[in-house]
Every structure is written in C-alpha cells, then in structure tokens.
Amino acid sequence: MSLPPGLTFGIEDAPSEEDLDALPRGLEAYNEQQWPGHQPWQVVNVLARRDGRVAGGLRGEIYAGWLFLRYLWIEEGLRGGGLGRRIIAAAERRAQASGCHSAWVDTFSFQAPGFYEKQGYVEFARLPYPPKGERLFLRKRLTEDAP
C-alpha cells in the first residue's frame, strides 16, 4: 500500500511543541464531531509544598466523567503520614465537583497498589512487566450511580 502524494511518516525524536499539540487538538476536534457538547480534558494539580518547594503532589486528568490519576509522588520523608491520602481526596473532590462518577489509576506492583486499595480503589486489570513485576489498573466509584 502506497502513501498519498506528499505524505511522509517516521519516528521523530524531537518534534516541535506545535507539532505535538496538533495531536490532541485533532483528536479533540474529532471527539467533538462524534460527541457534541462533551467537556474537554481538564487537568487537576494538587501540590504539597515545604518551604516553597514541591514535596509531593498529584497530576490528574478529568475527561468524560472519569478522573485519571496520572502522577502521584510524595517525598520519601513524608510518606506514611497521610499526605498521599489527603492529596487523592482533594483530587477526587475536584473531580466530583466537575461531574466525575469514577477515578482510575495504573501503578506497578513495586510502587503502591496497596496504598490505592486502602483509598477504595479496586483492581480491574493486570499486565505482566518482566523483569520488574506487573502493571495494575485500579478504579474507584466516586458516586453511587457510577457505571
């Protein structure tokens, strides 16, 4: 199968930000055609600071009724004191206020699956990741009528 005239493709190690931004813009435009009126992606950031420096936090994304916990990190000396629980709870409250019914996260078996389970997350999928364990996918219903 040949490519249309003028079309090329290949791996690019350092594309411009403008070129990278074309991908989500194009997908969002397509989604809007298929699903008129849906809300665009929203970013949720919850940061903990010590003396002005980030000591932990969460970066999440809200889309189509779901909160995705993309990154959660707590400085080692602050782990185990409830900060992670409070950060997740803040993100979940923001998600609920934005109309989310559920949240999900993926984590490696050597990271924090037990922590997420303590926050009410339930495993729904698992992938092998040799040689360092498995990747787990967990979800939590934020409302009683969540699918």
What does this 3D model show about the protein?
Helices cover 27% and strands 35% of the residues. The model has no long low-confidence stretch (mean pLDDT 94). It is globular and about 60 Å long. It has one domain (38-141): 3-Layer(aba) Sandwich (Aminopeptidase), CATH 3.40.630.30. It has helices spanning 17-34, 83-97, 113-118; strands at residues 42-50, 53-63, 66-74, 102-108, 122-128, 134-141. The chain is built from three helices and six strands, in the order H-E-E-E-H-E-H-E-E. Helix 2 (83-97) links the parallel strand 3 and strand 4 (102-108). It is α+β, with helices and mostly antiparallel strands and 147 residues long. Strands 1-2-3-4-6-5 form a six-stranded mixed β-sheet.
State the low-pLDDT regions, or none: none
CATH class: Alpha Beta
* Oligomer category: single chain
Discrete helix count: 3
Give the terminus-to-terminus CA distance: 42 Å
Taking strands numbered 1, 2, ... along the chain, how are they ordered across the largest sheet?
1-2-3-4-6-5
Task: Please provide the count of β strands.
Answer: 6
Round the Cα radius of gyration to an integer and report it: 19 Å
Domain count: 1
The helix content is 25-40%
Task: Say what the CATH topology is.
Answer: Aminopeptidase
Q: Indicate the structural class.
A: alpha+beta
